[in-house]
Amino acid sequence: MAKSDTTRRDCSAYADLPSDYIRLIKILPGDEDSDIRCHISLVSLKRQPDYIARSYAWGGKRIIYLDSHPLSPIRKNLWRVLHQARELASQIIELQSDFWIDALCIDQSHLEDRKQQVRLMAKIYERARKVPIWLGPSYNQSEISMQELTRPISCWQAKGKVFSVWKKPAGAAISGLCGRPYWRRLWIFQEIM
User: Fold this and answer.
1) What is the pTM of this model?
2) 114 contact partners, CB below 8 Å, separation of at least 6
């Protein structure tokens, strides 16, 4: 079997889970250009584990390693999430945390595992310490939109409705940010609500 063809079942953490268990990953340190490696562990939701759930949009594919096993390609946006978290972990202690990420913590090749974990998803997101979202890499004035969204905005009222007023180029930048593929996903309501 080729190195990149390893199935999730080759990794012992993808064995069948008891009904209240989830998998969590920890991103292992590495150099900028090294492969992304993660440790995966099993935990009971009853034990109130401390973790961060990540929300992102899918994209192209890349390979990562779980407990030394190469994992079939993951989505490129997820690879970017993991790469950024690993890169910033030495500066931001919180990024040394355990993470719940659907594509890694659910055995996508095993129907029963997917069903069981999907039933737990509301609990998984609700119990996460936080659920940061990944809108994708910075481009098309996204820095302007993020700065603008953190500032108080002026509002106008018109016929009982409140309108936020942004001047150009901030309005165009915010419109671009809101047009990203992330917002077209069905699951985002469960993930960020």
Assistant:
1) 0.72
2) 106, 107, 108
The DSSP symbol for 103 reads: H
What is the crossing angle of helices 170-178 and 142-150, to 10°? Answer: 100
Structure tokens at 38: 């993660």
- Residue 117 burial (CB < 10 Å; 0-12/13-18/19+)? buried
pLDDT in tens, 30-77: 888 899 999 999 999 999 999 999 888 777 777 788 888 887 678 888
Buried b (16+ CB within 10 A) or exposed e, 129-164: eebbebbbeeeebbebbeebeeeeeeeeeeeeeeee
Listed by start position, the domains of the chain span: 3-134, 142-186
Question: Residue 66 forms beta bridges with which residues?
Answer: 38, 69
Look up tokens 């992330």; give the residue: 182
Q: What are 64's strand-pairing partners?
A: 71
Per-chain mean pLDDT for the chain: 78
